[in-house]
Design a protein that fits this description.
GPI-anchor, 14 strands, seven-stranded parallel β-sheet, Glyco_hydro/deAcase_b/a-brl, alpha/beta, NodB homology domain-containing protein, glycoprotein, 245 residues, hydrolase, TIM Barrel, 7 helices
Amino acid sequence: MFPIVFLVCLAAIGTLAHPTTKRDAAQLITSCNKPNTVAITFDDGPYIYGKDLINTLDKNNVKATFFINGNNFRCIYDSDMMDNVKYAYDHGHQLASHTWHHKNLSTLSWDQLHDEMWRVEQALQRIVGVNPAFMRPPYGEYNDQVLQVSGARGQKVVIWDFDNGDTAGLSAAQSKGRYKDLVSKHPKNVLTLNHETHNTTVYDVIPYAIRKLKDAGYKFATVAECFGGDPYQSIVGPQTKDVSV
């Protein structure tokens, strides 16, 4: 390991990184493929409820997947947010990319796409030492170019087949109603969308959803587990923070 300087989110972080190896377009994942499995996923973090959410998941023996932004609700390089990212990773949850600024990727150029993806990959490598193998495009918006850039970066693109509706303004009761309806239909597997930035999701909806899904006999898994494959392209260990910062 070597010392680095963690910069604030508004500062330049480095030179745009383009992979040099040509790869096929990314594989698009819209559902799990292991029967009777549910993947609980969270977008838009890290955020202030992160550790409480992880404690709830751990108490219920549930491993989740966190699609991380670099500079959305909070800056990933804030010390408390770095702690949250480390906490999730150290507790065995999967970390994946949600890109840097949470932009609509289908509106960006080739270079802009690489920049959005690379910056959050670099942050995860610096903070916990992993290079994610899965990416979720903000708003679920993607086009052929997004798939091509993701493929060039060695990542699979993940959408979802169940949305609890928290970012659409649904109340906790309405989100729980969606989970209740889901369980009553009992699909063979489920890939969920939730947001760790909503306190009602963290403290009310998720505990309810876990109970309902457990009672229905579902097994919980990370995205990598429910679909198959490694969660990370590489694991090298975190880099150290420069003492001058």
